[in-house]
Fold this protein.
Amino acid sequence: MTEKKLGILEKYLTVWIGLCIAVGLLLGRFAPGFGQYLDSLKFAQISIPIGICLFFMMYPTILGIDFMDVKKAAKNPRPIMFTVFANWIIAPALMTLLANVFLAGHPDYIAGVILLGLSPCTAMVMWWMLLAKGDMAQGLINTAVNAVMMIVLYAPMAAFYLGVSGIPVPWDLIAMSVVFFILLPVAAGALTRKVLIPAKGKEWFDDVFRAKAGKISFVALLVTLVVLFSLQGNIILTDPLLVLFIAVPNLIHYAVMIGWTYLLGWYMGWDYPTAIDCTIIGSSSHFEVAIAVATTLYGIGSGAALATVIGPLFEVPLMLSLVRFGLHTCGYFPRRAKK
């Protein structure tokens, strides 16, 4: 039942996403005070509106995960190792190279793009995997590993790739992001399953409760887009050539990461749910953390902050396109054995 409802929403998802991006951009252009007010609503340097929306995007996806499946997924280390390699070895180095090649002479833009490449997605990625019919248990394990590694690696890797010794990367911001975007929704989802399934039954839980929660997740995604694009809507609309200029390394990065991760999953003979998980996680970014870090280090009106906001401008439709592409090509997985 839940999958059918998601299918109905997905049918018009592109239209809704486009409308919400447009609304956010127009608000940023003609009502800049709206974005400035939302940006002022923070707790421990994390945007409260965006934080709430990201929580309600992830919580419904957790509801669909049987945590016995998580234990089984943990016994398969290859996708986890693949995720770590893609997100922490290839992605930062590739984004840094592309940023320095295409944005040479613009250190603020380079910094923002690098911060984006250093932030593997740990929130919205669960929503994309759900739409793409990925392995949610395996996806949760991979995402949790990324969340832990962000706490350990983000600061030293930011210092290394930005070329600034002892850069003041806010550890509390990263730690709070992990707690709010990963630990809290996972705990809430697990507790909800434990309480409601014995009380109401599995059928009611799946067909009624999860269906309603899925609608909340959908609304949260759309509100997030409005909030994000209202922050820099004025610059994006008045200087589109600048947007395209900053977007070039991002677009190439997405194309390369999506291409090699998806093809490698096919070559290694993985099933489709595992392959699409690794591709989505390996190519997406936690732009909320990147935006927060950029605004903390360089200021809300900086080129670095602008570069991190432009990231989701292209990432959201690209991830949606990847979802559709995955659903159309899932029949090719696993790779057929050679005769």
User: Anything to note?
Assistant: Residues 2-329 form a domain with the Na+/H+ antiporter like fold fold (CATH 1.20.1530.20). The beta strands are 42-43, 46-47.
